[in-house]
Fold this protein.
Amino acid sequence: MPGFVHARVVLGASPTARLGLRGVWCWPTGLGFDVVSAVRSSELLVPLFKHGRDKHGPTLEVAVGDVVVSTARWREPADMSLFPGGGRGGLDYFEQLVNLWPLPPPEPLRITVDWVDAEIERTTTTLDGRLFTEAAASATPLWEP
């Protein structure tokens, strides 16, 4: 069972939309960011990692030191990788797990978001990476190795 860090952080906001971080699942092998998108109009709602011809969803970047990974370029090989997890939601709300591999070192972790269609400007939030490595160390294995 993973460790968990409660976050409840607004990562970006506009008059019509919000992007937030509810919490972070912490495994010894990586992290799972519980990202929330909320909108006033359902026409804006596009999940992370989904970019259509007429709509561009929110973009999320994670950086540790000089290494930066993004939901907009998630298929590119890198020292760290972001990839989509499960999601759920409704007409004005979507929650998605965004996985980061591997577990980053206990350094400041920067999360940058933007969402052009929802008028959320590029905004960076810095989180204490030690919280995540400590929570990952508290994860309980489900089976013996």
Observations:
- Helices lie at 129-137.
- The radius of gyration is 15 Å.
